[in-house]
């Protein structure tokens, strides 16, 4: 078991971790971010994410879960921190979290996303709300997607609001950041050349078909637009098809995360029906 470092003041180490909460550039330079909560930390460890440090409350005994966690990661740096400081890192005004993990960011490599004959991927174009990124990651994980790609000038996948909103799904589903459409389409063409005929499907209120009338059992890359302006003209031009979510009532549109969830559910429903009837995904 690693030796325990004790922190009881806002020293340089504490300030570095505190900066990770609000400063995207510092997160990127350090290559690390903070995670709290039993389920998210457990999923991160289960899925093999490198843990650089485990910070726990110096004022209370460790739970069985925390003790097991430390035993699973015997070589990881351990930090015993004053509860009021731990509460600051946990962004809580009252009780501090029991454990905060400092996790290493993976590379933004599209090859982290596995592509098979029943591929389902999601592109989120220029999202402005980190909470929406986390919510879409959660829905994508729930409905069997293989990965999320965030394109353009966007909120950060590793922002604490995104990490919390994903409720741990960030660690089960690859989420990759890329600068533009170009990198994504080059990757798509590579997959097509390797025999996976990915169909690029955008969501738009003026789409050519309702989602339940469109075949989503094929290998699909689903495009979700910016919360305010929707899909960019560039993405609309690159999409093989544009589909719409039929709506009734007075609402003119859906929140981006809700729209993504609706389409992902429809993909899951169609594919489940196809398997039940003997078609199989991708037929």
Describe this structure in words.
- The protein is an alpha/beta fold.
- The protein is built from ten helices and twelve strands.
- It has helices spanning 12-22, 24-30, 38-46, 64-72, 83-89, 130-142, 160-165, 181-193, 233-238, 256-276, and strands spanning 4-7, 32-36, 51-57, 77-81, 99-104, 120-125, 147-151, 175-178, 199-203, 209-210, 220-224, 241-244.
- The strands form two sheets. It has a seven-stranded parallel β-sheet. A five-stranded mixed β-sheet has the order 1-4-3-5-2, with helices on both faces.
- Helix 6 links the parallel strand 6 (120-125) and strand 7.
- Helix 6 (130-142) runs parallel beside helix 10 (256-276).
- The longest helix has 21 residues, at 256-276.
- The N and C termini lie far apart (52 Å).
Summarize the structure.
The chain has 283 residues and is α/β, with parallel strands linked by helices. Helices cover 36% and strands 20% of the residues.
The low-confidence parts are none
Question: How far apart are the termini?
Answer: 52 Å
Principal-axis shape equals elongated
Helix content: 25-40%
Proportion of residues in extended strands: 15-25%
Largest sheet: 7 strands, parallel
Order of helices and strands: EHHEHEHEHEEHEHEHEEEHEH
Q: Label the structural class.
A: alpha/beta
What is the mean predicted local confidence, pLDDT?
A: 94
Query: Total helix count?
Result: 10
Main sheet strand line-up? 8-7-6-11-9-12-10
Secondary structure: number of strands: 12
Q: What is Rg?
A: 21 Å
């Amino acid at each position: 078991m690693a030796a325990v470092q004790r922190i009881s003041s806002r020293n340089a180490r504490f300030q570095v971790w505190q900066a990770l909460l609000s400063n995207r550039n510092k997160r990127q330079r350090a290559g690390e971010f903070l995670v709290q909560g039993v389920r998210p930390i457990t999923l991160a460890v289960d899925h093999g994410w490198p843990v650089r440090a485990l910070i726990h409350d110096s004022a209370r005994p460790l739970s069985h879960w925390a003790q097991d966690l430390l035993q699973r990661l015997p070589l990881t740096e351990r930090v015993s921190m004053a509860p009021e400081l731990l509460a600051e890192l946990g962004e809580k005004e009252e009780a501090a979290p029991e454990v905060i993990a400092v996790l290493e960011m993976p590379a933004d490599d599209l090859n982290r996303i596995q592509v098979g004959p029943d591929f389902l991927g999601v592109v989120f174009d220029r999202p402005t709300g980190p909470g929406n990124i986390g919510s879409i990651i959660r829905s994508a994980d729930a409905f069997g997607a293989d990965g999320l790609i965030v394109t353009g000038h966007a909120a950060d996948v590793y922002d604490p609001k995104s990490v919390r909103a994903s409720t741990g799904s960030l660690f089960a589903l690859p989420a990759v950041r890329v600068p533009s459409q170009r990198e994504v389409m080059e990757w798509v063409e590579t997959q097509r050349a390797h025999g996976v005929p990915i169909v690029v499907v955008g969501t738009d209120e003026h789409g050519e078909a309702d989602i339940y009338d469109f075949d989503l059992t094929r290998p699909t890359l689903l495009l979700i637009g910016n919360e305010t302006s929707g899909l960019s003209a560039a993405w609309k031009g690159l999409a093989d098809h544009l589909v719409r979510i039929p709506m009734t009532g007075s609402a003119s549109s859906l929140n981006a995360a809700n729209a993504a969830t609706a389409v992902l559910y429809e993909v899951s429903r169609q594919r489940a029906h196809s398997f039940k009837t003997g078609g199989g995904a991708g037929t």
